[in-house]
Design brief:
The chain is of the alpha/beta class. About 30% of the residues lie in helices and about 30% in strands. It has eight helices and twelve strands. Strands 1, 2, 3, 4, 5, 6, 7, 8, 9, 10, 11 and 12 form a twelve-stranded mixed β-sheet that branches. Strand 1, helix 1 and strand 2 form a beta-alpha-beta unit. The protein starts with a strand and ends in a 5-residue tail after the last strand. About 35% of the residues are buried.
């Protein structure tokens, strides 16, 4: 992805986390009464989701330089998310990927809850229709539950860091040929996605969203290059580990990638064609 566009307070905060990687150009669209400055612009605060959609200003000039693969980050519970399709109409020439953030639903107002259901449903239908390349769903409380030593002060920053670092590594490995294994094009209909990690020692997976009816799962094994040269039992362990998750309706595959990291990591991508409620 060459550009990351964040919408709303959650979307822009998470998009800004990508700035630590030089591969991405980050654009932020926030709620406020300020003028466009560089790659930051604002939508005036409105009273309802309908007003955010109707009164969304033109983004033609602001997004003029955006091209290639892009990532659009949004939390459907924020009322400003109702402007998503209008904003994306200005980058329809791009390959659009959605990173959809699910916040703690029990703390939402009735209007926020209704807006979240509507936005999530519409974006999923657009993804299934191939208007978007894919839609990745991430549940904030679930990600938080996978992390240790979270405090009130670090809760959101560490969750953002975990999401972005995982997604970045998946992006890097997806564009790299594995030392062993293969990557194939995902099924045309499997455009609803989540990501996560697996503990290689236990095989426990920590996915970032409870994806229903997955039909494809891919494991990125990032292994220290010295271990790849010396551990003769490694391949057998990986084959056994991956085969445990295979069943009739789920196609599972993997790739092994050489790294210079002292520790080994396993990143997981799960895909479904079923609408996620």
């Amino acid at each position: 992805m060459s550009a990351v566009i964040g919408l709303g307070s959650v979307g822009t905060a998470l998009a800004n986390e990508f700035k630590k990687y030089p591969q991405y150009v980050v654009y932020s669209i926030s709620v406020g009464d300020k003028r466009t400055y560089g790659k930051k612009t604002y939508i005036k605060e409105q009273r309802s989701a309908e007003q955010y959609e109707d009164k969304c200003p033109s983004m033609r000039k602001f997004l003029k330089g955006v091209k290639g693969d892009i990532l659009f980050v949004v939390d459907g519970a924020e009322l400003v998310s109702a402007a998503t399709l209008k904003i994306l109409s200005y980058v329809k020439h791009c390959d659009i990927n959605i990173l959809y953030i699910c916040s703690e639903s029990k703390f939402l107002s009735k209007e926020e809850r209704l807006n979240e259901v509507a936005v999530r449903g519409v974006l999923q239908e657009y993804a299934r229709s191939a208007v978007f390349n894919k839609m990745m769903l991430v549940d904030i409380p679930i990600v938080g539950a996978t992390l240790s030593d979270l405090t009130v002060k670090t809760y959101h920053s560490k969750i953002r860091e975990a999401i972005v670092s995982t997604l970045h590594m998946v992006e890097v490995f997806s564009r790299t040929s594995p030392d062993l294994g293969s990557q194939r094009e995902p099924h045309e209909a499997a455009r609803l996605v989540t990501i996560g990690c697996m503990d290689m020692s236990t095989g426990k997976e920590n996915m970032f969203f409870p994806l229903n009816y997955p039909r494809e799962k891919y494991y990125y094994y990032a292994i220290n290059e010295n271990k790849l040269e010396t551990d003769s039992t490694l391949l057998g362990k990986i084959n056994e580990q991956v085969s445990k998750g295979t069943h009739e309706n789920l196609h599972v595959s993997y790739g092994i990638y050489s790294t210079e990291y002292a520790e080994d990591y396993v990143y997981v991508v799960s895909r479904s064609s079923a609408i996620q409620k």
